[in-house]
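Changelog-linked ticket: tryptophan example.
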Amino acid sequence: MSTDYSESHGGEFEKVVEYIANLKYPEKREEALQELSKKRETFPKLAIYLWHSVGTLAILLQEIVAIYPMLSPQNLSQNVSCKVCNVLGLLQCLALHPETRGLFLNAHIPLFLYPFLNTSSKLKPFENLRVTSLGVIGALVKGDDNDAITFLMQTEIIPLCLRIMKRGQELSRTVATFIVQKILMDDSGLSYICQTAERFFAVCTVLNHMVTDVVTNSKDDQRLLRHVIRCYLRLAENQKGKEALKKNLPDALREVDQKLITDDAVRKSHTQLLQNLGLSSDQ
Ligand code: TRP
């Protein structure tokens, strides 16, 4: 690893190196994790140092695996959850950086997060863990990286996301929907989901369920609706998907509803959706 001091401001480089070294000592680890998490935004090469330093990944994974026994039976304190969320924040940094993303995928690291996504407790330590884990997957799909989508499709991420979309709280539900949207935006992702009726309806049913939830509980969640409508728009680009959607679009979305959709951009997507499905009143 080259030592590029030119980038360091106020000894930031030295600090990062020191904190990475401190990860090795259990008594210094918690502080080091916290401090490294804070460096994510100010130190762009953090991902590279984390990945290429000796033993760092092993330590991070060990911290993750160590709490699996606390997931069932549920026995996870807020404190422990926070510590692991810091670890997840560092993994997110690896997932986001173009130079480490491929390495991260090839090492199948996302799979270590699936046990966290598979929990169902509504308690805060569990919800935080789910949201932060989804954030790592979200970082992988954010860059429209075909390799990342292809990798995720081969795993059980879609059913995990669907379950969170169905039962999750606002934030985890929105990030899970974003991930499904990103998979749908990918051509192979769209054909994968539309390949069988089971897959298509699994996705469509959960999207419909969320719309019904927003309507019946008068939630004003434009961000969620935006992702949901983008998912429908994309499903409508597939021939079979379009036919099935025509019959299955929830009633609340079959016409323009000023109260449900207040955001201009969302309304535009919705109008487009109705047009694409041949459901708009002026057709
Ligand atoms: N292995 C399952 C399948 O191939 C994965 C899956 C479950 C799935 N539910 C889904 C994939 C919904 C896409 C959509 O069908």
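Closing comment: Example verified and attached. The chain has a mean pLDDT of 94. The longest helix spans residues 197-216.
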